[in-house]
Amino acid sequence: MPTRHPAEELCRMATEGSLPEAFDGWGARGPDGDTVAHAAARAGRLPMGFTEWGLSDRRGRTVAHAALARGPLPEGFSEWSLADARGVTVAHDAARAGRLPEGFSGWALADRQGRTVAHAAALWGGLPEGFELWDLADDEGWTVAHAAALAGSLPPDFSRWSLSEPEGRTVAHVAACRGRLPDGFREWALADAEGRTVAHEAARRGLLPECFEDWDLADGQGRSVALEAAEAGMPPHGFYLREPDSAKAHDEAAAANAPGRSVVAAAPASEPGGKSVLSRESEPGGRAGSSRNQATGGRDPEGAIELGHARKGAAAQGEAFEDGIPGANAVTGVEGLPAAELVRLASEGTLPQGFTRWEAADHDGRTAAHAAAWNGRLPPDFHRWDIADRDGRTVAHVAAYRGHLPPDFRGWVISDAKGRTVAHEAACWGGLPETFSAWGLSDGLGRTVAHTAAEAGRLPRDFSRWELADREGRTVAHAAAESGRIPCGFSRWELADPFGRTVAHAAARRGRLPADFGSWELADHAGRTVAHEAARRGRLPASFDRWELADGSGRTVAHEAMAAGTLPKDFSRWELSDSKGRTVAHDAAHAGRLPRDFRGWDLADRTGRTVAHEAALAGRLPPGLDLWALADKDGWTVAHAAAARNRLPQGFDAWSLADRTGRTVAHAAAAAGPLPAGFDAWELADSEGRTVAHVAAEHGRLPEGFARLELADRRGRTVAQTAWEFGRARRRKRWRRPGQVGNRALAWKGAVIRKDLAFTYWQAAGLYRQLFAWRGDDAFSSLVGQEPRGDVDLERREVVVGRVHCEDRDGGGGQEDMVSRG
């Protein structure tokens, strides 16, 4: 049915549930871009049988999305494929909230990144029993099974551990990394593209079972599982880490087990005197407790052998030993020095040729390889770039940071503990070669190498892959623009992120738009244009003249510039208005930025409120301007606006100006603050008969000595009654629990009066001795002080205040009222 209400009023009615039953204007949009249906959905007020689920707001979120955020969708809902601007469907949101219906079959619905509803359900543990579509993959090749393994939501009988992503990582690898492999797992030999097995991942984290036996499983570089476990500080029982002590041993180790190291079995050796040097305390049966395992929380059930550095005492005696194991590997010279000394020598570049103990680390976790890489002292044939320090930062990262990578370096994909690759490090500090092309490599946050290079201003001149985006949809061009690194001649200003914010928006924020830029109307999903972004930061050119461009709520560029204080001094288009009819002059009047020669005081918005009203509310009307009678559609004058903010000038006398309800300027002034000392028009009344005195009494602003307490409105309510009710309300707010000193009752001539009632009423109403005339000196102070004095009689004067009736002692009657109503 047609309606006369504006869209914002309809949204309010929808929120309150007061729309008529046959209402059909659900698509009407409010100033924020939300429809009436969105407002009703968020409040849970959608009627039965509602069908317009596809209505969307400016962000693309449909009514179904809004209703689902409030609670379950109605039974029989079938429009699960409705998607927002990012491609996220209603089914995705329902899967995350655990609100998919039984028998749901649209698991393959995908967003723009290819992530299906099944992925969302797997990450939140919402997959049903008997689910079988484990091989559904997103755009990066990540399957539902991988997501479930990551979240630990795989079923107990899951068996498809060999499912892999493009890089070869299987579901078992992900589960091993998260420590979620089931008991009885046997497929330890599953390998990724680099040949790294599931057993390697589990060994690195100390998650191998006690019954594990395949210690000789090797990855693509020949590193065995035993070596992986030993380097993690958790070697198997009876094994220790061995360094080759000769070229022959090095060749044998390289052929058998990776770069120069091996894990060999050995019985615990002891020093003369029977004390074991393998651990701090030797256990029966040859088991030795590891000090490293103690430092790592005791994760060595087999009592693995300590892999420490050479002992200074043994080195001083010239004893041949390695890692604290005498006779296990005879090494002389530099190789036998403590790790801290090796790190120092590596930093100085005094290590001999053929040195192999690059992983020796000092107390800060810095290895000899890191120290050499920092100072550019690595040998030309160095190849162990993946050695990591205590923080997970590799040797290649340090070399890239310092610019010491060799020209033929190829290990760009080596990453640190946070997933940042060597290519990211080199891109940040300018170490990428001219032939580099792997710009799409991403770190743990999804940021590509191109993003890093763009932020650092290291992109090559011929770079063209500006559309590369991270996980949040932010392109390389956005990164360059936000960093102020947009190259000259760039033209792809329209590239947008998932929220519609273009590269031009980002460049406008930094003031990096070219002088000949002309696409000011480019807007994001909320309708905010590039001109709005530039105006907010004072980046508009002097020749800009498209002040009428408006965003989704109708707010023009001129309004934005006025709010930011960036309007030019010669601006003259004060009549430009937003969707509510509020002009630029209204905003300027509120902020006190109107020019001295301004003449358009009668410019009005849709409610009829003029620029003069706005200036009066802000106290910014120029002196001598006589526009007090200028009124809006409700008759509310400029004088009312000034009085409501207690900003009427001295000598003002047009108190009788009234709006359509009869409320005068004096009423507004009495509600806002004390009236002038000489004010005498207390009898001015509105359409309900409420006088100015009523309003002043209601706010506790009657002057001392006020005598016209008998003034009454149309309902017969006097000024005295209004003042009493005000005092009672104040008293109630100040009351504490009964029985306190402030609430004790005083017996007074047969009547019971609360101490704080009398004080609050008298003090707040401002009446003092007007309602009661006391005989005797300082009788009122006696009433509200410590104790009443003497036998003081009341005059025969009757006054009615609210529900309390006070007379002399022979009048009776009202004493009970004072107790019960007080």
Strand line-up across the major sheet: 1-2
Fraction in beta strands: under 5%
Q: Given the structure, what is the number of helices?
A: 30
Distance between the termini: 54 Å
Total number of strands: 10
Rg, rounded, reads 42 Å
The overall pLDDT, averaged over residues, is 75
Major beta-sheet overview: 2 strands, antiparallel
Q: Helix proportion of residues, in percent?
A: 25-40%
| Class inferred from helices and paired strands | mainly alpha
**Low confidence ranges:** 1-5, 243-261, 266-332, 733-822
What is the 3D shape?
Answer: elongated
Task: Detail the topology: elements first, then pairings.
Elements: H1 7-16, H2 36-42, H3 63-70, H4 90-97, H5 117-123, H6 144-151, H7 171-177, H8 198-204, H9 225-231, E1 239-242, H10 247-257, E2 262-265, E3 281-282, E4 288-289, H11 291-295, H12 312-316, E5 321-322, E6 325-326, H13 339-348, H14 368-374, H15 395-402, H16 422-429, H17 449-456, H18 476-482, H19 503-510, H20 530-536, H21 557-564, H22 584-591, H23 611-617, H24 638-644, H25 665-672, H26 692-698, H27 719-734, E7 745-748, E8 751-754, H28 755-765, H29 779-784, E9 799-801, E10 804-806, H30 815-821
Antiparallel strand pairs: 1-2, 3-4, 5-6, 7-8, 9-10
Helix pairs in contact: 1-2, 2-3, 3-4, 4-5, 5-6, 6-7, 7-8, 8-9, 13-14, 14-15, 15-16, 16-17, 17-18, 18-19, 19-20, 20-21, 21-22, 22-23, 23-24, 24-25, 25-26, 26-27, 27-28
